[in-house]
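PT: before anyone asks, these are the final sequences, not the draft ones from last week. 563 residues across everything. Please model them as a single complex and drop the result in this thread when it's through.
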Amino acid sequence: MTVKNMTIKEVTNKVLNNEELFLLDVRTEDAHQDWKIEGENFSYLNVPYFDLLDGVEEIADQLPKEKEIAVVCAKGGSSQMVAEMLVEEGFENVYSVEGGMKAWSEHLEPVKVNDLKDGGALYQFVRIGKGCLSYMVVSNGEAAVIDSTRMTDVYVEFAKELGVKITNVFDTHLHADHISGGRKIAEQTGAVYWLPPEDAGEVTFDYKPLRDGDHVTVGSTNIDIHALYSPGHTKGSTSFIVDDQYLMTGDILFIDSIGRPDLAGKADDWVMDLRETLYTRYKELSDELIVLPAHFMIMDELNEDGTVAAKLGTLFEKNHGLNIDDQDEFRKMVTENLPPQPNAYQEIRETNMGKISPDNEDQREMEIGPNRCAVR
Amino acid sequence: MELKTDLTLDAKGLACPMPIVKTKKTMKDIEAGQVLEIQATDKGSKADLEAWAKSAGHQYLGTIEENDVLKHYVRKAGSEENDEKKHPDVVNNEDLDAIRKNTATLLLDVRESAEYAFEHIPEAVSMPLGELDERADELDRTKNIYIVCRTGNRSDLAAQKLTEKGFENVYNVVPGMSNWSGETTKL
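LR: through. Structure below.
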């Protein structure tokens, strides 16, 4: 019996277009509660596949007869089995989500943010399942990649399709929620790999130190990437001002939340750095800059065109984390009642330092779950 | 390391859902109270097996990872929980905790050896119920023998057996490991 598959690309489109979908999640209850595919008009039923091995009759009356049903599991094997059983039970609109949550976690959706001057362009890669955002700045045959994920082929292929060469790769900070593809891309393409030295004290490989005030140009048209030291999430966290229009904030400032200072174990030390960055350094910048963060937490943070971006001035008005006058209250907010830390964040940091080299399967397991880099 | 089990299932190289599908089938081939070892390479099998065992009422003992092979241990659910306890001399967990270090105390753990391996009270000596008949002579008759299992039923049977064999100071510990909050040795 063959069952129709639904690709992650199709699921992503349903999320972005606010379409309806009934998701039957056959992972364990813990896994479902921790992390699932979120959609504005999605409905859910969670029954572990191992409770369905004797048949699906028991859940038949909890499933819609007319709507599309997508069965999802961790990697796509169990969903296939359950979908087959549902088809045998007489359900017609049943799909198995191809590759499951693994594919959901790895899917990157490239979205064009805007054209830059003299024929350049800026792209945002939305890792929709994990809420990670990375970027490619393109101009005159050259490209720079910022905060790339470990799915490095996507960037390399994308650059190839555009006919541009990746010459510079940046990480705004040492990531704790996902494994950076920065070093791999640099090795593959011969690009320069930049890291803030304050975060790179323990790294085991060569990199070029990125310091406050550094200027890097992409292509001959002088699209300028200007580094702005902005500690708080980590000691080295650095923001970029691109083409005088965009502010890449890394994990310091998000659309509806701010960065958490505790993932490298120094919450108390870094609270005041975070406050200084958000309330002083960013305040001195133009309100017209468009903020491009490295994460989003909820689907509401996506714009209608699928991008995650907002004017700095708007964030100063609306983002709660930028509107806490009292320093003690601010300290409390970013150090107490924090969400759980990202899955395997210590191992992820060590991987990003080059201290450990887990294989692909292990890297995938380490990245399971939401990113949890923010506090609201 | 090797743990004594009743049957081993090779689910290596199989992707989800097959390790659980096979485990469920294989559980039918062993008796209630026996332990199945499942060897798998699918990393997701640990969380799934633990959740499945809970949902099916079986007892998940633990997992040992060895050279990329995950060895899971599950004990098949039995009817033991409903048995009436017959041995008259009973102590509770707190009583045991107070005297477990005494030199006159001999603490005997009659659960399966895999259960014992994953977690036991530091002073406990392992002698699974099924081996008691052959091995009772190893026990020191001059000691006060306290017998522990998971819920107090296997230890009740063991206490009756030892009494029949002429042991005098034999106590059943209830409820036993299922509710033990004191010190333990873990794998």
